[in-house]
Amino acid sequence: MPELPEVETIKSDLEKVILNKKITDIVIHRASVIKEPGLKKFKSLLINSWCKKIIRRGKLLAIEIITHQKEIYFLAVHMRMTGQLVYGKEDPKSRVSFKLSNGFYLCYNDQRTLGELRLVKDIRGLSVIKNMGPEPLGEDFKADDFIRDISVRAARIKPLLLDQKFIAGIGNIYAVEALFSSKINPAKKACDLNAREAKVLFKNIKGTLRKAIKCRGSSFSNYRDGYGNKGTFSENFYVYGRKGLPCLVCENSIQRIKLGGRGTYFCSKCQK
DNA sequence: CGGGGCTCCTGTGCGC
DNA sequence: TGCGCACAGGAGCCCC
Question: Where do the H-state alpha helices sit in A85-185?
Answer without folding.
Answer: 127-130, 143-151, 157-162, 172-181
